[in-house]
Structure formats: C-alpha cells, structure tokens
Amino acid sequence: MAESENTETQKTDLVGEDKNVNGNMEKEMTQVEDKEEDSSQREKNISANADSPPETDKKEKKVVKTKVKGKPSKDDIQVEQTQPVAESTEANALPENVFPLFMTSKTQEIYNCKCDEDVTIENPFIMIPKADILEDMRMRAAVCDFHPFKQEILDYPGEDILIMYDYEFKYGQNFVVALTEEAKELLLKSTEEDKTEADSQAAEEEDDTVYLYVPPESKEWVSQGSEKEIDEGILKEGRRKLKVSVKRIRKEFGAAVTFEDRNVSDAKDGSVDCPSSEDRSFAVARIELDKGTQAIHEVTSEGVQTNWTYPRTATVQTYPREFTEQEKLELYDSASCKQFVFSAEYNFHLALQQNEITSVFYIDWHHLGDSDDTFGSKADNHMKEYQSFTDLQFSKDKVITCIQWHPVIKGVVATAVAEKLSFDERIDQSARVIMTPSIILIWSFTDPIHPQLILEAPDDIYSFAFNNTNPNYIAGGCYNGQIILWDITSHADRLKQQRGSNRNKKRTVLPGFEDPNALKTPIIHYCAVSSIDHSHRAPVTDIQWLPDHMQITKMGVPQENITNVSTQLISCATDNVVLFWDTKPSKVHQIQDDKTKMPMGIPATFKYLDLTWKPLLRVTLAKSEPGGDHAPIKFSIQEKQKERLTVTGAKSEMKDIDLNKTASTSQKPTSGKEKTLHGVKTFMYVGTEDGEVVYVDWMPQKDQDSGKIQTPKPAFYHCLHDGPIVSMERSPFFKEVLLSVGGWTFALWKEGVSSGPILCPAASNVRLSCGMWSPTRPGVFFISKVDGTIDVWDLLDKTHEPTLTQSVSPTSISAIYPYQVTQKQQLIAVGDYTGTLHILEIPWSLRHPTANEVNAVSNYIEREVKRRAFVEERWNFREREKREQEAEVKRKIGIVGAMAPLTEEEIEMKQRLEYDQYLAEESAFLRQLGIIQEDEVLV
Questions:
Q1: Contacts of residue 44, Cβ cutoff 8 Å, sequence gap at least 6
Q2: Checking DSSP bridges between strand 523-524 and strand 453-457, what pairing results, if any?
C-alpha cells in the first residue's frame, strides 16, 4: 500500500503542432495510467500476503521527459522505465562516516551558521571548531544537537569539523556532518563532481539548439516626401560675398607686438560677462535672417581755442592780499586780538588733545571700503572655490587625514593621505597595505598639478605638524603608533620658487646634458623614527610642538627655554596615554662619537634618535572611578607659540631666524640651570574616543595610597558628545575658550568652569567631522560635516543655528584648516574622502571683524559663565530641597533625629513606602490600559 503512494509519475507537455500526434499522446497517457492502476492493485495484493516485503522487491516507475523539435514520433513521446529504488538510493547515499544532523535555530545562532544567511545553496559548507562543540556539549549536555555523535567528535583528530547545509533535505535533515578527515574530503569532492556534472548537462542542453541565419531581403525604396524637407533645411548661399581690405601704415610693418597678463581680481569689473539673451525677433518660420550690426563707437573730433590771460587756478583768479609788517605789529598789540586768543584757548586745547588721540595721517582714500559699517553684498556672502589639488597616483581614492599650512612660505600647504580601510580590513589586506606607499604631499599654488615634495613614511600618517621655529623639521604620527621626523632643509628652496622657474632653469641647460629627473617630484625619506617598543600602541591621532619659550622636564615641570628653539612635542593615541618627546640628544650621545653613515639622500639631523627614541614623560589617563581608562584622540594646552609666528607677522619675524643656528642649538642638551616657569598652567583638555572632555594635570604626583609617582586623577570630565571627539581647538583670541567637536554636537568650554560647557546647541542632523576657529574674527568658527557641507557659526549673529551652510564636496569632509594670507585675503583648506584638497576663499563679511568684536565676544562669554554659575546654584538648591523633603517625610512618620544617618529599620521602612507607591502607580497604569480589572490587585 505504501509502495503505490511512493510511485512517482511525471507528465510532460510535448512540442508539436499536428492534431493527430496530440491524439496519439493522449491515448498513450491513458494507457500509462491504466498500467499504473494495474500495478498498484498488484502491489496491494502482494503487501496483503506478506508482512514485510524485502527492499529489492520495491519498484519505482518513471516517465522520462524527451524534448522533441519538430513533429514528434510515437517513440519519442514517453518511455516508461522501471528500476529498483535501491539504485537511486545508492546514488544519493552519504559517504562513510558522514551522517545527517538536525540543528535547531538556537544551535545555528551559537555556531553562526543560520540557514540562507551564513550558509546558502551556493556556499553550503562551514567549518565549526571542535573546541566550540565540546564547550557547547559541556554547557547544554544532551540538549546539544551534536550529543548523539559525542564519542565520534571526541575521537576526531582535526581541529575543525565540516558541516554541509542540506537545502532540499536530500538526506532527511537540514545539515550533514563529516566525522573523519577522509569523510570530509569525500564530501567536498562529491559536491564538486555533482556541480561539474550539472554544468556539463546544462552545456549539452544548450548545445542541442541550432540557430539558423536568415539574411534580410532587399526591397525597393519608396519616397514619402522627406527629401523635400531635408532640402529646405539646408542653408544655401544666396548673396554675393563681401570683400574686405585691411590697410596699415608702412612704418608699422613688422613691429613687435607686446602683450601682458592681468589678474581679473586686480580691478573692479575686471571681467565682462556676455550672457545669452532671448532674441525677440527670432521666428521659427524664418529659414534665413539678414541683420546688420555696428560694433564700434562713433568717432567725433572737437577743438576749442582759449586765451589764458591770467595763469591762475580755475576757481581763484586774483592775487592774495597780505599784511605788511607794520600792520602785523599793530594787529598783535590790539585788544581785539588778545581777547580772541583768550576766548579760543579752551577750544585750542581740545583740538590739541584730539590730535594727540586721533591719527592725523590717516588716509581715508586707502581705507574707503574698510569702514566698520560697510557690509558686503549678498553675492559675497559665500565661499568661492579658489583652487583644488589632487594627485592621480598618490591621493586618488584616499582620505585626507590632516592639513597643515606652511608657517612661513605663503601658498604652500601639506596634506597627509591614508587608505580608507577599517581595522579588520587592514588585517585582511595587510599585504596590499604594506606595498602601498604612505606619504605626505606638499602642494604649492605655483603648480596645482604636481606636488612640490613627497614625504615618505613607514605607515599611514594621521597627524603631523611643522616645527615652530624651524619649519624644515616636520614631526608626524603613524598608524602603528611610531613618531617620525623629517628634515626638508635641502629641498626648502624648491618651495620658494616662483611660477615657471623650473622651465627657465631647463632652458639654460646645455644641450645633451639635461637631467631627466629635474622636473620630477623628490621623495624625501624620514630621518628618524621612534622605538616601536616605547611608542604608542594605537594610531597617533594628534601631535603638537611645544612653544619655543618653554620645555618640560622628566617630572613634567615647565622650565624656561633659553635657546628659544622648539625641541619638544606632545602626541596622543587611543592607548590611554599622552606622551611628551624631546628631540635633543642625551649626554650619552654627546660623549659618544657616532660614526655610522646614513644612507644616501637621508639627512643625519636626528640620527641619534633613530630606532632608539623614547618618550620623556608618559601621562596615563585613568578614570576617577575604577573600571577603565580614557582613550584620548585630541588634546589642547593653554600655552601658545610667540606672536612672531602668527600669520600677520610670520614673514617679518622669521627673517631674523638663522636656520643653521637653530639646527645646531636644537641638538644641544639642556644645561640644567633653566628657571622654572610658575605662570605656566600644566593642565590640559583631552577629547576621548567615548565623547568625553577630560581636564587633567600632566605633572605627575605622589599617590597617597600606593606612594608611587604617577599621573593624578582628572580634575573633572564630562561625557557630553555622542561620538568620538574629532577636534579640540583653542580660540586664537581667548586662550581659555575651547571648541570641542564630536559625534553630532559641538560645545564651547571656558577653562575654570568645571560644571559644563558654556554653549552647547542642539544636535545636528548630520554627523560632524571637524571644527576650527577663524584666525581673524573672534566670534566665528567653521564646522564641517560628513555630507560634504561646512557650517559657519557667528556668535554675534545667532547661537542656535549656523549663519551660513555651504556644500563643498560630494563626499564626506575629513579635515579643514583656515589660513589668512594677507589682510585682504583669507583661505580655508578642505580635505575630503576622495583625496581632493579644496581651497576656498572666505568672503569679506566672514573675515573682517566688526567694531569692538573682541569686547562683544568677551562680554558674551562672561554672560554665559554667569548663566552657568546660576545653573549650578540651582542644582545645589534642588539637591538641598530634596534632602529637606526627605527629612520632612521622616519627621511626619515619627522618626526622631531627621538629620541623623538612617538606621537599617528606617531604610527598610523608606524602601517599603517607595515600593508600595510604585505598586499603586503600576496598578493605575495597567487599569488604564485595560490589562487588569478594577477589583484586581497586584501582589
């Protein structure tokens, strides 16, 4: 009875057009069905006579499909095949030591092998570690799906066990497990053979189809009247050609023609646009239109003849009248003159005081457009694209991680580029990352196509900085945690060359002696790298040089720097430490004569630091409460470089610095007689990976509990931002005001106010990527976002939303850096995730400060500080009010000594009251939802 139900009968529709053939097909199908009924009845009788029929007696009947092209014959319609079931089971039999396995959804989640997600029909195999299966069997015992094969798994020699996904339940379960190495190989090999056989069958079926090419038949062309329309649309010459005669004076034949270049921005309306306008006289019906225009002005000649009788000014045609000496003496001695002098004495003194206060040599004409009450037009209130830099070989499809303007040479900007890879992707593609060069590109406005210099590094650079006193020294932080130093002194002249100087030099070279590498960009190798054992354990995210007027000892004490040369720097990474580095050699290096030669092309400036450089001071950022450390990304100290390195005075002040003397001075160790700077604040602000702003002292102190010298706990920290902090910048006008940017928010902080930020607007709809202050306006700062836009905030305009939002790049912005070139020009460098550096020109209204803007912003900050103090006072008041209410509740319930510490009975009574109140509120809420009835009570 069961065998008749298991018999499979497949019926197919045959291809054919003849009605007789279709009739034969239906007759054949009827005969097959009759045969099946007879066989099923026969099998029922056999099953009734025998209790357990043998497997070999089972028969399977199949109707095989045959694809027929053209008119089919009777032999091709259907063929009945009868074969034992055992043969088909043999074809689908599992190899030895391979068993079906059913895995529940919970087990699939444990081993990360969810059906149709982790394992599919295309990728049915997955390797599960043997240790994970044994651990699961130990935890869940018999509940584990692998428990029936416990002994086989224990005896399994390998470390990973092969599991195959059975999508069609071919073997009875949803998975198949191989419990020996030989079974694993057989299972993999059988699956590949099945796939190859299926592909070959599909190829054979495709090869049976024959395609015949039927060439097109040529037909006679029938005219529909289109040639007339084409002929009318052709423009034909219908007028006589004009003859033009050009004449020139004979003496001007062969004269040299001189041209000169002029910048469009030098003069107002320097360029004239010719926009297209609608021609009202144009009509579609006209095929040809004749017009005449006169493109020159009319020339008129006029002349006048005048007789200049008196050569005087046009408005004064008389000689001046002067007093004689006698008349002057009489006038001085007269009473009226003395009375006038005495009466005008007071006003005369006021005029003298006014001249003393006001500059009488102020030229109004030169400052005609710089008045404080003048505002730019609406067309000037947005940033304009000034220039862009990209290199198809080194920076394309990479991310710009850091931007730095050259502190001395104008028009030179440096960018660090890195691969757009996550940590896991870097591990997977480590071979490709090692072969990809890690560089810093130095661009110049004189050549926007090719970089001037390329600084080579062992790994991607995420932060670098020019030295404060000698810009030829550059320090950078690598992705692997090392600190690198470059010396570009031998190539500094290349950055100062004017436009076209390389071409002029090439012309002066004698023929046959040209240098093929003269125009190639030089690649500069680093001259020193820190010891990897003493470096950071994570990518260096920020690096800064200390100002040249101070230096730090090993104990973190700030001292006076007699040499006035920046030799120390600070770096931070997400390995919970901030490191101080010193580039001066130790006394051991001064005594020993290092005769090791540097490779060709690498300067020996910092050879005593190469691979042996260790940090001077290590600042560990431990949290106040136990349970972890702070992971710094950005930091900021209060001390700044001297005014000689500001943008406005960099050129005049840096001329007095001798770079050779600076290099020799920076390699001398300290004398030990430096004075301690008591006015320097040793606290720093640190922005962490968790969005925390930490205020910590870098000077180590003695711990009272352990007695060790270590970094003190942070004075305070606030977890305000909802993402890693990407910027921590101090205002160039107020050194106690900071801007922090992280996640979707930014905040302004005032050093000395520990209760929180003085300004924190609403969160943005888009994640923020960077933030910088304006170098000329105290109340303006720039915020970049990942959608390619830049927000310009003006505190004097509004504080709840940005003053200007402008789209700069179609991709995410990674870094920005504003820079004042001159008093009349200010630029901002913007780097994105495609490796393109955009240079934008900031409009007049955003770079020119208003009248008394410094005082206005200072007053605003003071008001916010007072508001913050009021908020803190309200917090304390509410806390006191809460304690008084608790004391009043205790007094009402009869507890004596309301202000005394609570006993265990009082605490238990208080908790009981709070729990009863919670149950009452919960019951009322559930009754409103209709979950419980009015008479029910929660227990």
A1: 1, 4
A2: parallel
Virtual CA dihedral for 713, 716, 717, 718, nearest 10 degrees? Answer: 160
CB 715 within 8 A of CB 703: no
Q: Burial level of 532, CB count in 10 A (0-12/13-18/19+)?
A: middle
Residue 486: closest CA among 593, 587, 596, 610: 610
- Three-class SS of residue 13? coil
As a whole number of angstroms, the distance between CA 464 and CA 667 comes to 21
**DSSP letter, residue 583:** -
- Residue 816 phi, psi dihedral angles, 5° rounding: -135, 155
The SS3 call for residue 661 is helix
Find how far residue 10's CA is from the centre of its chain.
Answer: 62
Model confidence over 533-554: pLDDT tens digits? 999 999 999 999 999 889 999 9
Residue ranges of alpha helices (H) inside 173-324 are 181-208, 226-233
Torsion sign across C-alpha atoms 43, 46, 48, 51: negative
**Tokens matching residue 796:** 């004097």
| DSSP line for 343-378 | HTHHHHHHHHHHHHHS-TT--TTTTTT--TT----G
Q: How many CB atoms lie within 10 A of CB 740?
A: 27
- Calpha distance 693→741 (Å, rounded): 10
Angle at the Cα of 156 from the Cα atoms of 155 and 158, rounded to 5 degrees: 140
Count the alpha carbons within 13 Å of 697 in the hemisphere toward its beta carbon: 16
Q: For residues 808 and 782, what is the distance between their CA atoms, to the nearest angstrom?
A: 13
Q: Quick one: tokens of 519?
A: 């125009």
Q: Which residue has the tokens 């990407």?
A: 726
**AA letter at 5:** E
Report d(CA 785, CA 763) in Å as an integer: 12
Query: pLDDT digits over 371-427, tens only?
Result: 444 444 444 678 888 899 998 888 888 999 999 999 999 899 999 999 888 888 888
Distance of CA 370 to the CA centre of its chain: 37
Q: Does residue 877 sit in helix, strand or coil?
A: helix
Residue type, 417: V
CA dihedral 249, 254, 255, 260 (to 10 degrees): 120
Sheet holding 577-582, edge to edge: 540-545, 568-573, 577-582, 617-620
Q: How far is CA 514 from CA 495, 499, 500, 506, in A?
A: 22, 20, 17, 8
pLDDT above 70 coverage of the chain, percent: 71
The sheet carrying 683-688 orders its strands as 632-637, 683-688, 692-697, 716-719
Query: CB–CB of 849/774 below 8 Å?
Result: no
Gap between the terminal Cα atoms of the chain: 61
pLDDT above 60: residue 644:
no
Do the Cβ atoms of 452 and 444 come closer than 8 Å? yes
Helices (H), 612-738: 650-654, 659-666
Task: Provide DSSP, 300-312.
Answer: ----------S-S
Dihedral (CA of 196, 202, 207, 208) sign: positive
* pLDDT at residue 839 is higher than 90: yes
The distance between the two most distant Cα atoms of the chain, rounded to a whole number of Å, is: 168
